[in-house]
Amino acid sequence: MNEQQEKIHPKAYIKGHEVTKRLKEVTNCHTILELSSLLNVSSSTISTWHQRELTPYEVIIRVHLHTGASLEYLLLGKGEPYPEKNYQNEPNRVKKNEKVVNVEHFQLVNGELFSCKRLSFDHDYLHRLGISQPLSIESRNTTYMVDKSVTQVVSGIYLIDMDGFFSLNKIQRLPGSRFSINVLGSPLQIHEDDIRVIGKVMLEMNRK
Questions:
Q1: What is the DSSP string of 59-128?
Q2: How far is it, in rounded angstroms, from Cα 98 to Cα 60?
Q3: Rounded Cα distance, 24 and 174, in Å
Q4: Is the full-model pTM beyond 0.70?
Q5: CA distance 79 to 33
Q6: Are 106 and 119 in contact (CB under 8 A)?
Q7: Ranges of residues in the chain whose predicted pLDDT is under 50
C-alpha cells in the first residue's frame, strides 16, 4: 500500500426507517407488507431493523442489483435513486386497464403475515367496491379484502401493525386523537400514534 494513499474511513450509513423508506420507493412498494413479500423477509425482521436502528446491507445490495438504484442513495441517503435515469430497471408497475387484478394474498398467523399465492379478482368488481389498492388477508376461515389506500381511521375493521405484530381489529375514532379498539371482545382506548394502519377491510368472504 502506498503510504501516501488516502485512508478509507467508515461512512455514515442510514438506518432503520430511513432505509425502508428508500427501499419502498425504489421497489414501488407502498407498505411494509409489500416490501416484506417482495424481499422474502419477514415483517418482524423489518420491525427489528426499525427498533434497533440497523442497516440491512445484504438486502440493500440485492435491491441495487435488481433495480439498478444508486447505492449512495440507498446507503447514505444522498443523490437521486436513479441518477442515470435508467428507468428500464425499475420494477413493473400495475397497469390500470387490466381486467383481472392479481392481488397479494397473506395468511395472518400469530401476528405475522405469510405470503401466499396471489388471488385473481375482477377489476370492475373491485372498482365497484371502491377498492383502489387491494390486499387479501386470510385469517381462520375468512378472507378479508383490505384497501391500503384507506389509512385514516373513522369506523370499521382495519389491518393494523402494533409493535411489529399485525392484527385485524374493529376500531372507532374518538375525540382527542384517540381510538377505541376491540381486543378479544373488549374495548381498549389507545392513542392514534400507538398503531400503524395498513388499510381498511372493505369485504369479508367466509368459507362454509
A1: HHHHHHHHH---HIIIII--S-S-TT--GGGSPP---TT-SEEEEEEEEEETTEEEEEEEEEEEHHHHHH
A2: 31
A3: 31
A4: no
A5: 27
A6: no
A7: 86-95
pLDDT in the model for residue 92: 30
pLDDT at 2: 61
* Shared domain check, 177 and 113: yes
For the chain, how many structural domains are there in total? 2
The amino acid at residue 99 is K
Q: Are residues 71 and 112 both part of a single domain?
A: no
The letter for the amino acid at 3 is E
On whether the CB atoms of residues 176 and 167 are closer than 8 A, the answer is no
Residue 141 located in a structural domain: yes
Return the H-helix or E-strand segment holding 36: helix 32-39
**Environment class of 85 (CB within 10 Å of its CB; exposed 0-12, middle 13-18, buried 19+):** exposed
- Sign (positive or negative) of CA dihedral 61, 67, 73, 77: negative
